[in-house]
Amino acid sequence: MKTNDPYAALRFKEFNIFLIVRFALVFGWSMQFIVIEWQVYSLTKDPLSLGIIGLMEIIPALSMALFAGHIVDQKEKRNLLATCIAAFSLISLGLFLLTWPKIVSDWSTNTILYSIYGLVFFGGFLRSFFGPTIFSLVALIVPKKIYPNAATWNSSTWQMASVLGPAFGGLFINWIGVHWSLCIIFGLVVFSFFVLLQIPKKPVLNPKIGEPIVQSLKEGLNFVFKTKAILGAITLDMVAVLFGGAVALLPVYAQDILEVGPQGFGVLRASPAVGAFITMLITAYIPISKKAGLKLLGAIFGFGVCIIVFGVSTVFWISVVALFFSGVTDGVSMVIRQTILQIKTPDHMRGRVASVNSMFVGSSNELGAFESGLTAKLMGTVTAVVFGGTMTLITVITTGIVSPSFRKLDLTKDIKEHENSDQ
After folding, report:
1. Of 120, 132, 124, 156, which is closest to residue 363 (Cα–Cα)?
2. How far apart are CA 389 and CA 395, in angstroms?
3. Tens digit of each residue's pLDDT (9 = 90 or more) over 238-277
4. 143 phi and psi, to 5 degrees?
5. Using one digit for the tens of pLDDT, what is the confidence trace for 295-321?
6. Domain contains 245
7. Does some domain include residue 371?
8. Torsion of Cα atoms, 215 then 204 then 22 then 290, to 10°
């Protein structure tokens, strides 16, 4: 097998099964998120309520992240992921029932709203397990020498689902309503559960099974903070996502500023993922490991510029283009970050490292949603988005100045070492 084969990871049957599961889950999760965003804003007409959705997910996600990483490193990954999916199906079923016409007419708005927040809270708890489990399972399915290629296809699948989930979410809201849209999501989650069972159980590579949790967590944290490439990548991305969380305010733009309805909302929500997906397909053919640090800084700087353009735009097509290019730059960032994590992380610590990453980056999506909702309430929607983009630019410039070693980060040598270790 050629080491530069752009389809290297796709030549492994289990990896293809994994991608189907990944696609179904992300499609359902991203579709569910925007359907709930639409429903909550329709109930409240308050942008802060959109921020609260993010807050309800980040509280348990952050609280459980390190513990989840410890559990993932101690347990068999296939069954653990199956358990998470089964629990996720209960959330989807609960949201479907909460939007039943009989319940909507009989229950008060606050009761429905708080029930939705409660299910989102439970989803945040699951989220702390999903990321580390998926990250660890990928490494058990493909050889080390094709980790970068697997990371590209894994991220591309995530982005493809993120494209189609929001787009179809907006369309389904218009075609069949919120209630039956959530029914489709429940079906997707159940489907992903049964497909996952086609992957056999995998060995647990951690030599310290039964290790005390405090010692385990300390080891994981020490590794992350001592590995400058990992720490720099996830910190930079965290700040960018935290302050560039304009996506959380898209219902406000769609309904009140651009006035494009649910179809336009779906297009806006999907535009960043379209850009990121196209970028990731290109990186399967043109690796971006050389001068990775400089490219990551440039990508996140471009992301900040796109967010500012989107924030001030009052023309639908300009907004779509700005979001599209924010996805292009975010796609570059994601591929580089995932490659750094896969290459630099030992097998027995993948769960804990992925958990720290989820605390820095994954949870910053929800915290960014809360920040966007809060600043929109205090400053106004447009000012809040421009503020977030500006903070992203300041962060990139500061990082580039104070960390010359990160600017010089290159992954070419690390990738060659992994290729030689598999021979």
Report:
1. 124
2. 10
3. 877 777 767 778 888 888 888 888 878 878 877 887 888 7
4. -65, 155
5. 899 999 999 999 999 999 989 999 999
6. yes
7. yes
8. 70
Count Cβ atoms below 10 Å from residue 90 Cβ, excluding itself: 15
Question: Does residue 165 form part of some domain?
Answer: yes
Query: Would you say residue 126 lies in a domain?
Result: yes
Query: Distance of CA 3 to CAs 120, 121, 143, 155, 283, Å?
Result: 42, 43, 11, 19, 15
Contact 78, 200 (CB under 8 A): yes
Please give the DSSP secondary-structure letter assigned to residue 99.
T
Tell me the residue range of the domain where 50 lies. 9-199+209-421
Mean pLDDT of 346-351: 88
Task: In whole angstroms, give the CA distance from residue 399 to residue 395.
Answer: 6
**Half-sphere exposure at residue 130, Cβ-oriented, CA atoms within 13 angstroms:** 21
Residue 357: pLDDT band by 50, 70, 90 thresholds? Answer: confident
- Would you tell me the crossing angle of helices 13-44 and 109-141 to the nearest 10 degrees? 160
Contact yes or no for 326/275 (Cβ under 8 A): yes
Give the 3-state secondary structure of residue 331: helix
Give pTM, 2 decimals. 0.77
Please tell me the distance from the alpha carbon of residue 139 to that of residue 402, in angstroms, as a whole number: 33
**What are the structure tokens assigned to 32, written together?**
């569910």
CATH of the domain at 282: 1.20.1250.20
Greatest pairwise CA separation for the chain in angstroms: 65
Whole-number Cα distances in Å, 225 to 189, 208, 232, 385, 397 = 36, 21, 9, 31, 22
**Interacting residues of 216 by C-beta distance below 8 A, sequence separation 6+:** 70, 73, 74, 208, 352
pLDDT tens for each residue of 403-419: 888 888 887 777 676 56
Residue 338 vs residues 234, 250, 272, 354: alpha-carbon distances, Å? 10, 27, 18, 10
> Which of helix, strand or coil describes residue 24?
helix
**361 and 241 in contact (C-beta within 8 Å)?**
yes
Tokens 């990453």 belong to 357
Cα–Cα dist 233/185, whole Å: 33
pLDDT at 348: 84
Calculate the average pLDDT of the chain: 86
Number of domains in the chain: 1
DSSP string covering 288-300: --TTHHHHHHHHH
Amino acid in position 229: A
